[in-house]
Specification:
Order of helices and strands: HHHHEHHEEEHH
Number of strands: 4
Helix content: 40-55%
Number of domains: 2
Shape: elongated
Distance between the termini: 49 Å
CATH class of the largest domain: Alpha Beta
Bound molecules: FE2/S2 (inorganic) cluster
Strand content: 5-15%
Largest sheet: 4 strands, mixed
Radius of gyration: 18 Å
Low-confidence stretches: none
Strand order of the largest sheet: 2-1-3-4
Mean pLDDT: 89
Oligomer: single chain
Length: 178
């Protein structure tokens, strides 16, 4: 029996989403985004609950959730740092960025710092290949044209609470988070 339930607000959003799509199961992706935002990650009981509300199997929901790197199936840190390692970013130094992040955070890829502040992930293309290397923080905040000095500045800003979303490379250049 699932212990997860939509909040009153999410139930309203769910009902609204149902009016926006021609088929019930088409609501799955937008719904998973909202469940993750509310629950922090896609807990097993949340996946079961979503499946029951959409008349899908839990395996189908888990399959979709695990395909996209923006969905989290495990509890992560407050800031999830995702570094693209595909060809454009790789050629422009993504491996050095990942090595730098591992060094300053003291964790490996796929891990979370003991204080629960940062998780580090190596991910597939983030669709910003012309501005690589690219790192995404949580959902949708992109840092582009990165180098090791910039990622160090970004981590320091996040750690010290000097970061407000969204932040782009221009802000680093302007010195507003450096
Ligand atoms: S290769 Fe890195 S964003 Fe596409």
């Amino acid at each position: 029996m699932s212990s997860y339930k939509f909040s009153v607000e999410l139930e309203k959003k769910f009902q609204w989403l149902l009016t926006r799509y021609p088929k019930k199961d088409a609501v799955l992706l937008p719904l998973l985004h909202r469940v993750q935002a509310e629950a922090g990650y896609l807990r097993p009981d949340a996946i079961e609950y979503v499946a029951s509300r959409l008349s899908l199997s839990p395996a189908r929901v888990r399959e979709v959730a695990s395909f996209y790197s923006m969905f989290r199936l495990n509890q992560k840190g407050q800031y999830v740092l995702q570094v693209c390692h595909n060809i454009s970013c790789y050629l422009r130094g993504s491996d050095e960025l990942i090595a730098k992040l591992k060094n300053i955070l003291g964790i490996s890829e796929g891990e979370t710092t003991p204080d629960g502040k940062f998780s580090l992930e190596r991910v597939e293309c983030l669709a910003s290949c012309d501005t690589g290397p690219v790192m995404q923080v949580n959902e949708g905040d992109y840092f582009e044209n990165l180098d090791t000095q910039k990622v160090e500045q970004i981590v320091a800003a996040l750690r010290e609470g000097r970061w407000t979303s969204p932040v782009y490379d221009e802000r680093i250049k302007e010195g507003s988070i450096a």
